[in-house]
Amino acid sequence: MNALNVAEYTHTLGLQAKTASALMAKAPAAIKNKALKALARLLRENVDALQVDNARDLDRARSAGLAEPMVDRLKLSPKVLETCAEGCEQLAAMPDIIGEILGMKQQPSGIRVGQMRVPIGVFGMIYESRPNVTIEAASLSIKSGNACILRGGSEAIDSSKALARLVQQALAEAGLPQDAVQLVQTTDREAVGQLIAMPQFVDVIIPRGGKGLIERISRDAKVPVIKHLDGNCHTYVDDPCDVAMAVKVADNAKTNKYSPCNASEGLLVARGVAADFLPKIGAVYAAKGVEMRGCPESLAILKSVAGAQLAQATEQDWSEEYLAPIISVKIVAGVDEAIAHINHYSSHHTDAILTTNHVHAQRFLREVDSASVMVNASTRFADGFEYGLGAEIGISTDKFHARGPVGLEGLTSLKYVVLGDGEVRA
Fold it and tell me: Which pTM value belongs to this model?
């Protein structure tokens, strides 16, 4: 596609999405739920066919020398597809929030004033790697009564196209406009530039990917952006804590999966428990091949762990999102230093404290400035499906409109409604 054709193509997508959004906004809940249930069924019926398409993406990625954790992000395993199907069903079972009226109050003038929840309209989603985001975005768009234009990464183009075909099939089965969910069919990067500069059609852009992508879109977009930044997440092991539980959770937070943005990249350990805790978690990480980049004090303890891969942490390590079997380790004096370190170095995504001290837990929840804060749980739970949102469109590190996993409410707006009985203003 040449530049002119890309501009014409994205203009057409925008016009079609805008037209479809008006129909989606007034679609009854039963019809939207019918589409979601049909999509869940189609995903299960097409597991084998989807893996054929996915295999082409995986082969291409490996041939291009993509690192294995990044290849892992591309996989549409039966388990991943089942999670997508369950997410669709979870959304279908949830109440329809579109049209609900909040906070209706009688005013001295006699009028009643409240707010109605309405769809945003059209959102554009630009994402890298994970093709299952196609289903998460589409299903949330359907349930929230929006239309969306999706632009997946070139590394997963065959998988995303196959999934988008199933989405449009499900929409058609339910009698909804197929253009309510459109996937950009070209990998030309100019399509992104066009998509983020169409305020006449697109109401909000949601980028989900690496720092470079987010920075480019935040800089160049002519429509509002809900940012999903990198995940430099921390697990802080407090004094006092249940050491056995802390080992179990710190292990899961790092090694359950290395590539997601909610995997812990930093491990902070209170000095009072370091001598007990660090050799235990060090042995777990050593057995799993996780490199530990530590401060001098932590390395002095960890050097006794057989087979441990150790390195001196640099200043850069405290801010790094590794997405790999690497973790930074730092001993801190206690909860004050842990909170200060997290607020300075983290990406404000997800941070957890492992503690048996209620006051420390409450301080951590109040004072850590992140989209999700956790007590005695793995950071890997920071996920729309796990939070009961049905699915998520991303995890926003912004502070306005939507923060944390963005589910249905994050894809809606509120408008004021006024009910009267002939009142006039004096």
Answer: 0.82
